[in-house]
Amino acid sequence: MNNIENAVERHYLRAVTFLVILILAGAAFWGVRRFAPAMFLGKPDLIAVPNDARPQNRTNAGTPNKPELLNINTASADELQTLPNIGEATAQRIIDYRTQHGDFSSVDDIQNVRGIGAKTLEKLRPFINAK
């Protein structure tokens, strides 16, 4: 009977050790995902809107493939929908605002469109211009 008790105790100890190791590995994985999520995302892809009407500005010798910013005064609804946080309804409101009030004089003027506030403007700023 003593041999059986020792065998059960050894297997119990191995099972507990395995579970502790599994919990520690899971906690480490969770910590990495929580505090360094970029390790799991890879490189983010940026959406570049091609503008066939005008060739891209190639004045910067250091960045010849830098995409042109989207002009909010001339962009179509489809082009506006490629921007972050801009859906079909918001794109139409931008076009309606442009029609009623004329061109935007600066990027900041897009805040006058209903549904676009300061937070949305900051997300849009790297992708748009008003020239």
The amount of beta strand, in percent, is under 5%
Q: In the CATH classification, which architecture of the largest domain applies?
A: Orthogonal Bundle
Query: How many structural domains in the coordinates?
Result: 2
Query: How many E strands?
Result: 2
State the fourth-level CATH superfamily of the largest domain.
Photosystem II 12 kDa extrinsic protein
**CATH fold title of the largest domain:** DNA polymerase, domain 1
Q: State the strand order across the main sheet.
A: 1-2
CATH class of the largest domain: Mainly Alpha
Order of helices and strands: HHEHHHE
Q: What spatial form do the alpha-carbon principal axes imply?
A: rod-shaped
Unreliable spans: none
Largest sheet: 2 strands, parallel
End-to-end Cα distance, whole Å, is: 89 Å
Radius of gyration: 28 Å
Structural overview:
- The relative contact order is 0.10.
- The chain has a two-stranded parallel sheet.
- Helix content is about 50%, strand content about 5%.
- It is built from five helices and two strands.
- The mean pLDDT is about 80.
- It is mostly helical.
- It folds into two domains: about 1-40; about 45-130, Orthogonal Bundle (DNA polymerase, domain 1), CATH 1.10.150.320.
Salient structural properties:
5 helices; mainly alpha; two-stranded parallel sheet; DNA polymerase, domain 1; 131 residues
